[in-house]
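stage 2 :: seqdesign
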């Protein structure tokens, strides 16, 4: 039933961000309801059901600090992550505060009353604050190819691909070179007649064996018997290591390229390496793709790689600009999504905010000129929760300060800030003008989580 009385907080989205938010709201005695357009929790871990869908961040870092996920694997598959999020939602009774099949269509802040009215497909909600966890992926990015209408086979985006499907009698071509393509192809190769990974240009790929290390296992076993601090230290250490690798690879790209060369040359040989494994960009300008089982499938000849642009499609093949023809019955587009941080109409009184383009985004929590609104964003080049959790706790500090001091509204001023995204993959570059500008942190969680999220009331306007 839709509550008619005013809530402290409406949380939008029951993905990993929203569930983390709900946990911290409950832990601090703040009332809330969560609105989710789907019929289950999990966000992208509920909707991305293609072959090989998984996390490529170490799951010790990606799982919540308040409920580490214990596993002998380093990375987790989509199903495990989805189950984990359901378990968190059930264990902390978050589930009973979620209104499923409730899509937010519009939210309006009344600056006189200092409250939000939230319009949904399932009624109207009122709250003092919004915490938005509506995610950042929206519609699938579907490129168009000349003569696609002549193609007799199937063209399907990974967003619509179900991992239960098999392609035993099909020549499958996967188009893409990002994380989705690299996660997907080793698994698809197991269920396809033949598989070609077709990339316009190569990405940096690093293969791991996906086994938890001995240290991880020891820390996890200690956690199980109630000794929690070793796992906490390990979580911090893994983040610190990631941040150092990020900094060193960016600062010393030749050294980084040498590491990738040493990693792939023995498996694929000089010619293949030169043709398919040397990206046009520098290491860590985009997320590094983490592969599991790719080397084996390439060595067995189960995955062929082609690097070229698509010139056109025929009835049963793809013609490349380098003159090659690839037989194709099923063309799977691992071409990512459009990036969109705002999935409903947002109004401050009668003024509509169309997108967040250029808006100052303080510490990835508050946007300039939008009162009583928090949107805790995660890290794009590391494990998402390493910032989304910290940003959430920061929002709660602000709300608690307001309660203590009797304030009803908080905002930060709109202002110009300099911002260069930490990484520049295509999905970010495609929508750069619509992105807010994050400032107030270094975008390096191991440092930020200690130094950048000290709350100073002087940085906010309270009324
Ligand atoms: C295949 C894949 C692999 C990834 N791997 C990693 C990784 O290894 N490490 C990493 O850090 N990140 C990874 N990411 C990025 C990932 O998006 C984030 O880690 C994180 O899951 C984002 O969570 P979220 O809750 O903010 O958003 P989402 O998971 O997108 O959840 C948003 C929720 O909000 C709901 N919603 C949206 N709009 C509305 C509305 N108007 N009304 C009501 N509900 C709404 C959606 O239905 C959804 O449930 C990956 C992404 C993908 C797609």
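stage 2 :: out
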């Amino acid at each position: 039933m839709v509550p008619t009385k005013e809530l402290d907080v409406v949380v939008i989205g029951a993905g990993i961000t929203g569930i983390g938010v709900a946990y911290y709201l409950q832990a601090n005695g703040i009332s809330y309801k969560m609105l989710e357009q789907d019929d289950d929790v999990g966000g992208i871990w509920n909707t991305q059901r293609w072959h090989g869908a998984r996390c490529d961040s170490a799951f010790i870092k990606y799982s919540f600090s308040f409920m580490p996920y214990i596993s002998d694997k380093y990375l987790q598959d989509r199903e495990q992550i989805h189950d984990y999020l359901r378990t968190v939602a059930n264990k902390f009774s978050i589930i009973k505060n979620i209104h499923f099949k409730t899509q937010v269509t519009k939210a309006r802040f009344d600056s006189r009353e200092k409250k939000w009215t939230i319009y949904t497909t399932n009624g109207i909600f009122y709250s003092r604050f919004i915490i938005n966890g509506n995610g950042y992926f929206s519609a699938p990015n579907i490129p168009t190819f000349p003569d696609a209408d002549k193609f007799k086979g199937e063209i399907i985006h990974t967003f619509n691909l179900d991992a239960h499907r098999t392609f035993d009698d099909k020549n499958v071509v996967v188009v893409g070179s990002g994380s989705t393509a690299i996660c997907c192809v080793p698994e698809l190769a197991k269920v396809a007649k033949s598989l070609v990974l077709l990339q316009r240009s190569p990405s940096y790929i690093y293969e791991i064996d996906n086994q938890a290390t001995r240290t991880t296992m020891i820390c996890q076993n200690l956690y199980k018997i109630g000794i929690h601090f070793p796992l906490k230290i390990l979580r911090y250490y893994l983040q610190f290591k990631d941040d150092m690798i990020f900094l060193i690879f960016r600062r010393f790209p030749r050294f980084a390229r040498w590491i990738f060369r040493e990693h792939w040359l023995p498996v694929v040989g000089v010619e293949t390496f030169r043709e398919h494994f040397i990206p046009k960009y520098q290491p860590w300008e985009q997320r590094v793709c983490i592969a599991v089982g790719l080397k084996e499938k390439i060595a067995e000849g189960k995955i062929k790689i082609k690097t070229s642009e698509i010139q056109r499609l025929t009835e049963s093949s793809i013609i490349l600009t380098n003159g090659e023809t690839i037989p194709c019955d099923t063309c799977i587009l691992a071409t990512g999504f459009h990036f969109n941080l705002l999935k409903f109409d947002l109004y401050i009184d009668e003024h509509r905010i169309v997108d967040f383009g250029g808006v100052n985004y303080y510490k990835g929590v508050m946007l300039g000129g939008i009162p009583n609104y928090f949107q805790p964003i995660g890290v794009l080049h590391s494990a998402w929760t390493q910032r989304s959790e910290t940003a959430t706790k920061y929002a709660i500090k602000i709300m608690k300060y307001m309660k203590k001091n009797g304030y009803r509204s908080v905002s930060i001023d709109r202002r110009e800030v300099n911002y260069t995204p930490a990484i520049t993959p295509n999905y970010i570059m495609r929508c750069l003008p619509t992105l807010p500008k994050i400032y107030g942190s270094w975008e390096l969680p191991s440092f930020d989580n200690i130094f950048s999220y000290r709350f100073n009331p002087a940085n906010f306007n309270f009324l």
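stage 3 :: structure notes
- DSSP finds twelve helices and 26 strands in the chain.
- Residues 6-138+340-462 form a domain with the FAD/NAD(P)-binding domain fold (CATH 3.50.50.60).
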